[in-house]
Amino acid sequence: MRSQSFRLPTQTLTTSLSTPLRTFSSALRSQPTPLTQSLPSFRTSLTSASSLSFGLTQQTRSFSASASLAGRRATYNPSRRVQKRRHGFLARLRSRGGRKVLQHRREKGRKSLSW
């Protein structure tokens, strides 16, 4: 496993104020995960920020958008809709790797670029 360094949210606020061009927030990465809470090496670093992250972890639901990023579904129920969502042209345009796939298929002269 990789060990992650833990940054307090106050540090991310000061860095975001010094660089106004960055529009995204890195506060989500600083939240402790249940895996890191169970490891004894992270317990000492999390005790100081446990009061800060308590309010953030209470608001998350068991059914969230991050659950859809898990990859595998509970049951295998294939459909054309899911196939096009995962391997379709618009899905290829959304990701960096997908745009590379489209570029290589254009260079090779493929008749169909994607599903």
Automatic annotation (TrEMBL):
One Pfam family per UniProt: Ribosomal_L34
One example GO MF annotation: structural constituent of ribosome
Stretches for region Disordered: 89-115
Keyword Ligase part of the UniProt annotation: no
Keyword Ribosomal protein: yes
Matches recorded under Gene3D superfamilies: 1.10.287.3980
Keywords from the named record: Ribonucleoprotein, Ribosomal protein
GO biological process: translation
Gene Ontology CC: one annotated term: mitochondrial large ribosomal subunit
Transmembrane segments: none
Entry similarity comment: Belongs to the bacterial ribosomal protein bL34 family.
NCBIfam families reported in the protein's UniProt record: rpmH_bact
Stated name of the protein: Large ribosomal subunit protein bL34m
Organism: Aspergillus thermomutatus (Neosartorya pseudofischeri)
